[in-house]
Structure formats: structure tokens, C-alpha cells
Amino acid sequence: MSTTPRRARRLVPLLLIAVWLVVGGVLGPYAGRLGEVATNDQAAFLPRSAESTEVIAAQRAFRQEETLPVIVVWTGEDMPERRAAADRALDSLADGPGLAGPVSPALLSEDREALQGVVPLRPDLGDDLAGTLDRIRAAAERVPGTTVQLAGPAASQADLADAFAGIDGLLLAVALVTVLVILLLVYRSVLLPLLIILGAVFALGLACAVVYALADRGVVRVDGQVQGILSILVIGAATDYALLLTARFREELAARTDRFTAMREALRQSWGAIVASAATVALGLLALLLSDLTNNRALGPVGAIGIGCAVLSTLTFLPAVLVALGRAAYWPAKPGARPASESAGEGVWRRVAALVDRAPRRVWAVTLAVLLAGAAFAPTLTSKGVPLDETFVNDAPSVAAQQTLGDHFPGGSGNPAVVIADADRLDPVLAAARATDGVASAAAVSGSGRPGGEPLVVDGRVRVDVTLTAAADSDAAKETVARLRTDLHDVSGADALVGGYTAQQYDTLRTAERDRTLIVPVVLAVILLILVGLLRSLLLPVLLVATVALNFLATLGVSALVFQHVFGFTGTDPSVPLYGFVFLVALGVDYNIFLMSRVREESLRHGVREGVLRGLVTTGGVITSAGVVLAATFAALGVIPLAFLAQIAFIVAFGVLLDTLVVRSLLVPALVRDIGERAWWPSRMSRGATAADGD
User: How confident is the model at residue 341 (pLDDT cuts 50, 70, 90)?
Assistant: First the structure.
């Protein structure tokens, strides 16, 4: 053989390694810089076409900008005598930095045990919000003999920012350490886990750099939730794909002496499954672009970019470094012999395969019954939103302040529903609003920016603030908003629009329901088409999609029980079921792709029955390891003290384990074994074709 091809095949891996080292060195720091372009302003993530979003635009005519109110709450003894001091404290804040309107006077509660004042802030304060709240607290504490608390959207947003503080370092460290420990325990190799982790970190650095550039130019939006999910998704996916490739390379090294030939064969046999698996996840995420919620649309392209970078690293950096190191990459294991992870677990998978072969119908019937039992509880999962006191897993100051506010004032005090209507129909609008069940009061906003006085009329429109009796984040308040809209829309000629915080929550809930109805079928159709192209069959892809959908429903059922009886959650965020569906269905199909692509390969050589058994035995260890790794990485989201991410972490982690250990290990192989060659209809394999027949 010429020395030129030999030199070229040695230089290509070294060149790829050098390129990725540069990528890691230059772009790696961006994994810690996404917070610079992230926003946790929830007003930026509202439905585009909702009525509450129209109200935000209409409000700009009444004041220069939308506000983010903070409600100062004083409690103590002799509160009526403290009112003058509270007014002076509020007046001292007028025209201060960060304010977006006039400060309200102190309002005494009906039980005369508390005072409150509303301070409107600019919604774009960003990192300055914490300092502004500190100044407000310092001014409020000048009222002697009282306890001061800060409630309202501004205080909640500050607590949200604190929850995401340090997300880059903490979440990444927990995820990487978790993956490293699992890989060390499973593969008992010193160098291989480090190589896999390094490839995942390179992929994350590249993904974060791309997302940073796009977010900085306003092409995509990033918030703390999207930021955390991106890190977990890239680490988990890159590790999963790496495990599939390294396992195949190890097989080829055992059969060949030349490491370059072994890697070429390993790539030839595994790249299709890896790319197909990545495509299911990426396209499933991109289906979120159909959502009307901005944060859902943000996760779509950001997640797809992360998956693309994970695949790129797996198919370029990892092969290069494995070829460069050869058998040394697996030290102290020896690829010529069976590795510790397989030699220890192969007997288990042979017994599983024997069980599937001996009683396939009994196996799939029992596993199907277990999954259906779990799915029966899926309708009990409430997705109407999480009340403020459950938003944070740990105690948050804004939650305690809101509870104090609700103890002494109407639930919607300081956070009213906002009505924009025609000025010449103001009186019937006020009458209809006050007559609506669940409304405490309603008043037109004057030129001073406060309810009461001569109404401010702008372009023939007037603003009315409606205080609700129920807490602004409660189900009762959302029901009141729905009734209020019905009543005001019936006022002839008023052209009334109802917005505000509660209306935004209500619109987000309705939009999330619409998104699920639209996106779920699209994701299933996309995955089905990918499976048809990969497996060259129609019946088997339908079967696989049905099993992962059932796994999702069973996971939701178990989650409903755990959330209610273990974690104490009364409900979930409206987006949680959709996120769970996209991740679980797409990632669940991943493992079925890994399994069935190998089953197809073995079936072409040995027939369908033997192919199922060989595929299950050869992929059992690596797919189980991949599932455990992915479940552990998503479980790392639990370090962020937010109910939304804790719920996503449990749903995905439990669902992946259920899919890996039950659906992929028992249900799918048993069904294919029982159906036999017909499962591959209409391909030639359904008629007993083998590799010799050129299928």
C-alpha cells in the first residue's frame, strides 16, 4: 500500500482532534455566558395572538411603557398610626431610578393590621432589578415598628433570577460528574469516560456559542429554563450517541487488528442509527415552532442546534480520538476480550432474550398491562398552572410576601385585571365589571396613573383596573377573568379587551392546550416517517410509535401520583406535558432505533427470530447504560429550585428508565418475536429475505 494513503489516514484524525481542541478552547467559555443574553422576563413569553397580549400593546398609549409592579407590605401593631410614615417612605421613591410611573399611597387593610403600596418598575431593569428592590426595601424599613415584605411580579421575577443564578456552573458540574461516575462504574475504564465527557463538553461549547450569537442578534430567545434544558440535552445526547459508537468500535476491534478499518466499519454500521435518532429529537423539537408561546418556540431551534452539535462531535471528534488511541482508549479493559460491562451483563440479557423467545405473548401481554395501568392515571395530571406558592421548590421571599398580602387584602390586590375599552361606553363597562362574580372593585385610571379621579382618555379609549377577590395566580382568578371577558364582550360598542397578569396566565393555559392538540400529531408523524425510512417497513414503525406513546402516557400517570402524593404539587405548568411528550417520545424512539437497526442487521444474516434475540443481547448493555446516563442527566435539573424543572426532570428521567428497561427490553422484542416476519411488512424481510437476497 502507498505511504500517502497511510499518512493521510493518520493525519485526518489528528487534524480533527486539533480542530475540536480549538473549538473547545475558543468557544468553550460560551457555555458559561448564555446568561448574558438570557431573559427571565415572563412578559416576553406570552402568546402572540392572545387578548392579554393585545392589552399590553394598547396600554402603551396610556403610559410610556409597561410596568412591573412591586407591592410593599407592612405588618405590625398600630398600623393606622403608621400610615403617614408609610406614605412618606413611598413618596421618597418618586422619580427614583427604575420607576416607570407614579407610586401609590399607602392603603390600610380592612382588618387594620397591614399597609400596602404599589411601586411600578420598568420591566427591562434586568440585573438592576435586585438593586432597585433593595432601595425600595430600605426606604420601606424607615417605617418604625413594622415588618416589611415585597410581593408582586417584580419580587417574583427577582426570586426567579436568584433561582437561575449560577445555573451554568452548578447544573453543568452536577450533570458531568453524574455521567462520569456512571460511566466509570459501568465500563470500568479510566480513559474512555473522560473522552466521552470531553466530546460532550466540546459539543456543548459549540452549541452555546451558536445560540449565544443568535440570541445576541434577536434571532432566538433564551431564558433560564431553555438554558438549563440545552445543557442537559447536549450532555445526555452526546453521551448516548458516544456509547453506541464506542460499543460498536469495541466489537470491531475484537474482530480486526487494524484500528482504522475497525473504525470505518463501526461508523458504517452505526452512523445511520445515530443520525436517525438525532433527527427524531431535532425534528420533534423543531415542531415546537408551531407553538404560539414564545418560550416553546425558543426551545425548538435551541434544542435542535444542541442535538446537531452533539451528533457532529460524536461522528468527528470521537472517532478521531478513538482511532488515535486504539485499544488504549479502553484500558484497563481489553477489546480483544469482552469488556467488563458486557461480560458481567451479557448473561442477564441472554436470560431476557431466552424469556422473550420462550413466551413472547405472555411477556408483551404482562408489560402491556403494566403500562396501561400506569396510563389509566394520566388524566388525573392537572396542567392548569402552578400557583405562586408552588413555583419555587424552596421557600422564596416573594411567596411569603404574597401570602401575607392575601391574608389582609383582596387576593388580586396590587395586581389587577386591566381593561381597555371605548371611553363613551365607560359607565356600562364599569357596571358590567362590578357585577361580575369574583370582582372586588373596578375603577377607571386617571391622568395620575391611579384608579379614581377624572378618567384619562387616549384616542377615544379608557383604561379600567379591576381588582379580583381571589389571588391573581389562582384557578378562581382565571375563572373570574373568563367571566369578565364574557360580560364585557357583551357590552355593545365597548370593544373591551381584558388583560393583566391573571389574563396572561389564562391565555397561556388556553394556548398550551391548543399547542398540544397541534404539535403532538406533528411529532408523531415526523417520527413515523423517519422510522419508515430507516427500517424500510410500515407495520414495525407504527408499532414502535405506539409503544413510546404508551410509555409517555404511563409516565404521566405515575407522575400524577408522585407529584400529588409525594412532592405535594397541586398541578403542573401548562407546558410540562408538551415538553415531556417531545422529550420522551423522541428519546424513547432513540433506543428503539438503536435496538431495531441492530435487529434488522442481524435478521438479514440469521433470520427474524434469531435477529431479535441477537439484537437484544448485543445492544442490551449499551442501551441500558445510555438510558441510565440520560435519566441521570435530566434528573440533574432538580438542582434548580423551580417546580417546572423539577417536574420535567422527574417525567423525563422516570420515562426514559421505563422505556429502556420495560418497553425496549421486553415489550418491543416480544411483540416483534410474536409477530415474526410479518412485522417487517412490506419489505422483503417480511417474506424471509436475507442479506444474500440483496435486501
Answer: very low
